[in-house]
Amino acid sequence: MTQENNLGRLMNGWFSETSDVWPGIALSIEIEKTLFSKKSQFQQIELFETRHHGRMLVLDGVIQLTDFDEFAYQEMLAHTPLFAHPAPKKVLVIGGGDGGILREIARHEGVQTIDICEIDEMVIQVSRQYLPEMGCGFDDPRVILHIADGNEFIGQHPDEYDVIIVDSSDPVGPGEILFEGPFYEHCQRALKQNGILAIQGESFFLHPDLVQKMVKRIKKLFKIHAYSNFLVPTFTGGHIGICLGSKGPAVRTPARKIPQKIQERLKYYTARVHKASFVLPKFAEKLIEEV
Ligand code: SPD
C-alpha cells in the first residue's frame, strides 16, 4: 500500500481520515489550528489542536490519538496483557512513540524494566513537546529507549520479556513490517516461558481480512490466543482490537486483583471490562474461529 493513498485531508477546518485501507468511509474532526507538521525520515507527522477533542496526533494521515479518548486505547492495550500475566517484570513496547502505553505500564510497581523500541525519534520529540500527558511516559526511570527498527530489535532479544506490547500504526509505511509473519515469530521467541504478546489488532468491521491474517499467525505460534475489542470513538469505525498470544497464562481474565491504587486512576479498564472485551459479535467470532 502506498503512503500517497493514505494521506488524510484538511478542508474547511475539518481533518478527514481517508484511506484505501478503509475505502468509502472517513472520520472527520474539526480543527482549530495546526501546531506541528513535518515529514520525518519515515512519515508525515502532524499535531493538531482540535475544536472539541483536545490535541490530535496524525501519522501519514491516520489518527493515532486524541486527548479526548486516548485513555481507552492506552489502558486496554497495556493493562489487558499486564494483568493477564501473574507477575510481569520485564516488558517491551514496540512502536508507541507517543509514550501513552509507557505511562500505563509504569503504574505497575512489579515491573522492573520497560524497554521501548521506536523507529521514529521525531514522534517522541513531538509528543514530549505537545502531548505532555503521554510524553511523560518516557520520564519513568525504568524506561530504556531504543531508537531502532522493531523487527530487527526483537530478533536480537530471545527469551527476554514477560510481556511484549506492539503499539503500531496501521500496515502502511514504517508500521507495515510489524504485520508480517517473521515479526510474529521473533516476538514469540523474545518472550520468556510464560510470556504474553499483545498486538494492536485493527478493526473487524473495517478490515476483516487483515484481522484474520493476524489471528492466523498468532494461532500458529501460541497455544493460547484470543481477540479483544473495545471502543475508541476517534478511530474510524469507532473501535479497535487487540490480538493476544500467550505461552502460558490465560488471557481472557486478569490473573491478579487490580490494585486500588491503579484502579482509581483508570478511566476505561476494569476487571469486568477486561473479561467483556473478549465477547465478540457473532460475525466477528466466526471470522476469528474459522481461520
Ligand atoms: N487506525 C489507527 C491505529 C492506531 C494505533 N496506534 C495508536 C498509537 C497510540 N499510542
Q: Could you characterize what this model shows?
A:
- The protein is of the alpha/beta class and 291 residues long.
- Helices cover 29% and strands 30% of the residues.
- It has helices spanning 70-84, 100-105, 121-130, 132-135, 150-155, 181-190, 208-221, 260-263, 271-276, 282-289, and strands at 9-11, 14-17, 27-39, 44-50, 55-59, 62-66, 90-95, 113-118, 143-147, 161-167, 191-200, 224-231, 239-246.
- The longest helix has 15 residues, at 70-84.
- The radius of gyration is 18 Å and the shape is globular.
- The two termini are 24 Å apart.
- The structure holds spermidine.
- Spermidine (SPD) binds at residues 62, 64-65, 73-74, 96, 98, 100-101, 167, 169-170, 200, 235.
SSE topology sketch:
Layout lengths: L8 E3 L2 E4 L9 E13 L4 E7 L4 E5 L2 E5 L3 H15 L5 E6 L4 H6 L7 E6 L2 H10 L1 H4 L7 E5 L2 H6 L5 E7 L13 H10 E10 L7 H14 L2 E8 L7 E8 L13 H4 L7 H6 L5 H8 L2
Parallel strand pairs: 7-8, 7-10, 8-9, 10-11
Antiparallel strand pairs: 1-2, 2-3, 3-4, 4-5, 5-6, 11-13, 12-13
This protein binds spermidine.
Percentage of residues in strands: 25-35%
Overall geometric form: globular
Ligand inventory: spermidine
Helix fraction, binned, reads 25-40%
What's the total number of strands? Answer: 13
What is the end-to-end distance?
A: 24 Å
| Helix-strand string | EEEEEEHEHEHHEHEHEHEEHHH
Strand order of the largest sheet: 9-8-7-10-11-13-12
Number of helices: 10
| Major sheet description | 7 strands, mixed
Task: Describe, in short, the structure shown.
With 291 residues, the protein is an alpha/beta fold. The protein has ten helices and 13 strands.
